[in-house]
Specification:
Belongs to the UbiA prenyltransferase family. Protoheme IX farnesyltransferase subfamily. It comes from Azospirillum rugosum. This is Protoheme IX farnesyltransferase. It catalyses: heme b + (2E,6E)-farnesyl diphosphate + H2O = Fe(II)-heme o + diphosphate. It is a multi-pass membrane protein. The chain is mostly helical. It folds into 2 domains: about 180 residues, Tetracycline Repressor, domain 2 (Orthogonal Bundle); about 130 residues. It is about 80% helix and about 0% strand. The protein contains 16 helices and no strands. α3 packs parallel to α10 and α4 packs antiparallel against α6. The N and C termini lie far apart (about 55 Å).
Length: about 300
């Protein structure tokens, strides 16, 4: 099935549904709130661990702008991917393919929110943070969604950069610049993203195959994907410990990140040896907890001690 026929099928599903009214909940769902929550937390962590002081009101505005920008990216992603979302069981009930929101309304909603988040960030906080936020939205929409996702199995490797920018944005909101510690936080999320999403792709392989999305398990096969997942978790170990080396993480963070990293590696080993999808599902769930706990350790240390070391 071609991209054009998929798009017509998705738009036809809306027309056949007979649903004309959308609820506020439908538009909230367009923002991908579950994905947004982790993005927002890592952005908040960037604000907390950055050197200097930021007024709580401005910090709240910065976090809100990160949240709105992330949500806007999700809405535009759903608008563009409505054709393949309609034939994937995991996404078929999303607001556009299920007919609850018209595609044009979803696009307008996303574009307006994206523009507003960048402008407010620039006017209220600073234009470095606003530029990074604009880069994040643009990278997710144009580089990942429109260019990479349907063309290469490296889609999530390169495109994962979009999800790695929020702590840099938070850092820049406080400092007005980009420095080594914020780059390390970026790299942490960047290297975490492939094993996280490939774990999902392993047990959702059928969905991606039907939709023609060249995720790594579809193109290279499960075994090659599992080996790469293990490699990424091993490389992630020293990168996750690096915040301690640059002074934004303390001893508690170093110990915690090392233990969590070893557990992540263990998950990858179990996936490599597995003959069913259960370990991949468990690794996907743990990967979310892993990233949340790493940044929670950083935030907790700074709130308790006023600094990492």
């Amino acid at each position: 099935m071609t991209d054009l026929s998929l798009e017509r099928a998705a738009d036809g599903r809306f027309a056949d549904s007979g649903l004309g009214g959308s609820t506020a909940g439908d538009y909230i769902e367009l923002l991908k709130p579950r994905v947004m929550s982790l993005v927002v937390f890592t952005g908040l962590a960037g604000i907390v661990v950055a050197p200097g002081h930021m007024h709580p009101v401005l910090a709240a505005v910065a976090v809100l702008c990160i949240a709105v920008g992330a949500g806007a990216s999700g809405a535009i992603n759903m608008w563009y991917d409505r054709d393949i979302d309609a034939i994937m069981s995991r996404t078929a009930k999303r607001p556009i393919p299920s007919g609850r929101v018209e595609p044009d309304n979803a696009l307008a909603f996303g574009v307006i929110l994206a523009a507003a988040s960048v402008v407010v960030m620039g006017l209220a906080v600073n234009w470095v943070a606003a530029a990074l936020l604009a880069l994040t939205v643009g990278f997710y929409v144009f580089v990942y969604t429109m260019w990479l996702k349907r063309r290469t199995p490296q889609n999530i490797v390169i495109g994962g950069a979009a999800g790695a920018f929020p702590p840099m944005i938070g850092w820049a909101a406080v400092t007005g610049g980009v420095e080594l510690p914020s780059i390390l936080l970026f790299l942490l999320i960047f290297l975490w993203t492939p094993p996280h999403f490939w774990a999902l792709a392993l047990f959702r392989n059928g969905d991606y195959t039907r939709a023609g999305v060249p995720m790594m398990p579809v193109v290279a096969g499960p075994e090659a994907t599992k080996r790469q997942m293990l490699l990424y978790t091993l490389v992630l170990l020293p990168v996750a410990a690096a915040p301690y080396a640059v002074g934004i993480g303390g001893l508690a963070y170093l110990i915690g990140s090392s233990l969590l990293g070893l557990l992540f590696v263990l998950c990858a080993v179990r996936v490599l040896r597995a003959t069913d999808d259960k370990p991949a599902k468990q690794m996907f769930g743990f990967s979310i907890l892993y990233l949340f706990l790493l940044f929670a350790l950083l935030v907790g240390e700074h709130l308790v001690t006023g600094g990492g070391a």
